[in-house]
Amino acid sequence: MPERSVISRGGGRDRTERILEAVRAIPKGFVRTYGDIDPAAPRAVGRVLATTTVPVPWHRVVRADGTPPLGADQLRRLLREGVPIRNGRVDLTRARLPR
């Protein structure tokens, strides 16, 4: 199946590819925030993850405050990978992948 790509203003396919590659590079046990992946366009990260048909570890991307945008299912996936969770949020001081 061909990859469905998001074409966005100012970034297009190149930005989409950079986002997908950055998400693929997040190892098990770690997370990144939308802003870590693309500081200039964190919403574009969400859009790419929401619309891509390419398998990527989307669950390793969380909001800047550590909350999982997709709730309990995302938290379960992260817990299975050993990501530290505290009060329903990812403990970013321990789980955020260094730049």
Feature tags:
mainly alpha, 99 residues, two-stranded parallel ribbon, two-stranded antiparallel ribbon, 4 strands, 41% helix, disordered N terminus, Arc Repressor Mutant, subunit A, single chain
Describe the structure.
This protein has 99 residues and is mainly alpha-helical. The protein has a single domain, classed as Orthogonal Bundle (Arc Repressor Mutant, subunit A), CATH 1.10.10. Helix content is 41%, strand content 8%. The chain is built from five helices and four strands, in the order αβααβαββα. It has helices at 12-24, 34-37, 42-51, 71-80, 92-95; strands at 32-33, 61-62, 85-86, 89-90. It has a two-stranded parallel ribbon with strand order 1-2. It has a two-stranded antiparallel ribbon with strand order 3-4. Strand 3 and strand 4 (89-90) form a beta hairpin. The protein starts with 11 loop residues before the first helix and ends with a helix. Mean pLDDT is 90; it is low at 1-9.
